[in-house]
Every structure is written in structure tokens, then in C-alpha cells.
Amino acid sequence: MPDQIRDNGYTVIERAAAADLVDGLKKALLRTEHEHGLGYAKTSFEGFKTVRINNLLTYDDMFWQVPLHANVLPVVERVLDKECLLSSFCSLVLGPARRRSRSMRTPS
Asked: Measured on CA atoms in the order 98, 99, 101, 107, is the torsion positive or negative?
């Protein structure tokens, strides 16, 4: 994992969380989106087909289980240190892809 972070700037922790936690997180995301009237972004910077929810830790205690998870925290502490400061935690959900414009299509 440290090599992946060094080489790619990120790592994927396969099967890091149990299915019930993932299901709970999905429900909490949908509930947060609904309760706060969030939806697709309205700027080209954020993308018109994305739903972004920033500062998740303020919305539901369920979200605290991600950065403090036994399979995640050791990776964070190894990359940063044991005094790591979590300043932001967000969700980004990509919507359906837009059709490619004619200029992006490959010639027939």
C-alpha cells in the first residue's frame, strides 16, 4: 500500500468494510441528500452530473465510521502521522455519462 500511495498518490483498500456498513453509508448519503435538498451540481467546475456532499461528518454519525475504520485509520496514520487532522470528508457521486460531442467521436 505505501508503494501505491507513493507511486499513484492514492490506494484502494479492497473489501475494507463489511456490506452492512456500506449499506448504512449509502442510506445515510441518500437521507442527507434528501433532507438538505442537495442534488446535481450547477457549475462546470463541479460537473453538472455529480452530487457532492461536503463536510459529511456534520450530517450523520454514521460517516465517522469511515475515517476511524480499523482498515482505514492505520493507512492514514502511516501516510500522515498519528496526529492526523481530518479537515474535510466528502462524497462525490457521478451521475450518468453525457453523450460525447461530435468532435469527440471517432471517425467512421
From this structure: positive
* DSSP track, 43-71: STTT-TTEEEE--GGGT-GGGGGTTT-TT
Helix (H, G, I), strand (E, B) or coil at 3: helix
Question: pLDDT tens across 40-68, in order?
Answer: 878 787 777 888 888 888 899 999 998 88
Q: What is the mean pLDDT of the chain?
A: 80
Contact 75, 26 (CB under 8 A): no
Report CA dihedral (86, 33, 50, 46) to the nearest 10 degrees: -60
Nearest Cα to 32, choosing from 42, 41, 24, 21? 24
What is the phi-psi region of residue 59: left when phi exceeds 0, alpha when psi lies from -120 to 50, beta otherwise? alpha
